[in-house]
Amino acid sequence: VQEKSFIMIKPDGIHRGLIADIIKRFEAKGYKLVAIKVMVPSKDLASKHYEEHAQRPFYPGLVTFLSSGPVVAMVWEGKDVIKYGRKMIGATNPLASTPGTIRGDYGIDVGRNIIHGSDSVESAQREIALWFGAGELAEYDLAM
Ligand code: CMP
């Protein structure tokens, strides 16, 4: 199915210099970049983004970390991009993720796992609406 996913390079990914590599992977796969921005998220935005984890012991640290530096927030569009994008990203814990995935290639710590990707259609819609305004998503065809 044609769908959109919210994909975000977290502060550790920026500090590691992985922006171009990550964009290259999604672009090379055939996905379409329809929104992108760099920002330092407020604590409020970071809290809302991770609200489903509010009861977890790692939540305060997670929110502090996300709002500690710049992120690259993106929306990628294409066939099965939510599920396949998560396959490209790899398992949440980088040590459990397969080599060849983003986390498998570059990470070692679950709290510094480089990138976030929506895990369902519902969370993609919620996250896209949280991070972007309706007018910030481009509509276009990739010429073939
Ligand atoms: P993400 O896919 O962005 O979604 C939730 C995040 O919580 C996850 O990536 C991890 O960065 C973080 N996380 C999950 N489990 C733990 C944990 N046990 N300790 C610290 N951070 C965690």
TrEMBL record:
What are the binding positions for ATP in this chain?
10, 58, 86, 92, 103, 113
Note the Pfam families from the entry: NDK
The record places the active site at 116 (pros-phosphohistidine intermediate)
Q: Which cofactor does it need?
A: Mg(2+)
- Catalysed conversion reaction: a 2'-deoxyribonucleoside 5'-diphosphate + ATP = a 2'-deoxyribonucleoside 5'-triphosphate + ADP; a ribonucleoside 5'-diphosphate + ATP = a ribonucleoside 5'-triphosphate + ADP
Q: Where is the Nucleoside diphosphate kinase-like domain?
A: 2-139
State the Gene Ontology BP annotations.
CTP biosynthetic process; GTP biosynthetic process; UTP biosynthetic process
Q: What is its EC number?
A: 2.7.4.6
* Domain of life, per lineage: Eukaryota
Q: Which keywords does this chain's UniProt record carry?
A: ATP-binding, Kinase, Nucleotide-binding, Transferase
Whether ATP-binding counts among this entry's keywords is yes
GO MF term (any one): nucleoside diphosphate kinase activity
Q: Which family does it belong to?
A: Belongs to the NDK family.
> What protein name does the entry list?
Nucleoside diphosphate kinase
Q: Which organism is it from?
A: Ostreobium quekettii
